[in-house]
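The instructor's notes for this session suggest beginning with a concrete chain rather than abstract definitions. Hand out the sequence below and ask the class to guess, before any prediction is shown, which regions might be ordered.
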Amino acid sequence: MSGDRKTVIKGNPSQYVKLNIGGSLYYTTIGTLTKLDTMLRAMFSGRMEVLTDSEGWILIDRCGKHFGRILTYLRDGSLPLPASVVELCELRAEAKYYCIGELAADCDAALSRRRQVQAEPICRVPLINSQKEEQLLISSSSKPVVKLLINRHNNKYSYTSASDDNLLKNIELFDKLSLRFFGRVLFIKDVIGSNEICCWSFYGHEKKVAEVCCTSIVYATDKKHTKVEFPEARIYEETLNILLYESRVGGEEGAGGGADGGDVLMMATSSSLALASSSYTTTATTSDEEERSSSGLAKLRYNKQSNQ
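After discussion, reveal the predicted structure:
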């Protein structure tokens, strides 16, 4: 515009100036703009010419979106950084333009941390390579443990036609379960284990409580074959059962009856134990009632005979 002109700004720190940053208007003091050794100090301490319009607004050809944050940093020496990665990159660009090195470094550090967090895997599955390592993992875990042993290279006998497909299904189910229950159950994988080919093991309180072996030997007319099965329902059932061994703290223990609340819960939710207990209770109750009834009848007969 014809009214724009270059001038030198120099005044008392308490003097206010009007800034037009890419169309965004700001009003601040020279003291704030010159507080740190930045390009803004050079612009407002008389060392550089600045462009002003006819109304006295100092024009800076930058996006004004983050200039308020720049002023906050100049005033306080610190700044809550934006949560958005895009805005963080934009703020870093503005900090570099105004030569505010510490703010740019803070943005770089925040971006680096967020990249590391984003790169963190959702689920970690340890791949064990020795029985000692397996025992250490199980004993040190506060969670229930599910282990899948996979050893396709045990080629003592030829495999049946569906074995390879079922082996892959077992691995796929293990991956799905580890994602679904990550944080509640420790999943570990053993690929160099014993002579077993495909076997699931379930541990609670450092002890093996269940096992699902997916392999068997079938006999043909001329030779033996190795068969790999995929008992999906059984694996799901044992995985859900293992959740009963989760550590329970605080109020949950009180609800379960103290330190043994977990044992009470496991007994109460075990279908076989509950059924057996129910059957026993019904039988015992019936027997007691029959005994009391028989005793009462005997007394009535005795009294009747005595009166006669």
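Then share the key points. The chain is about 45% helix and 20% strand. The radius of gyration is 38 Å.
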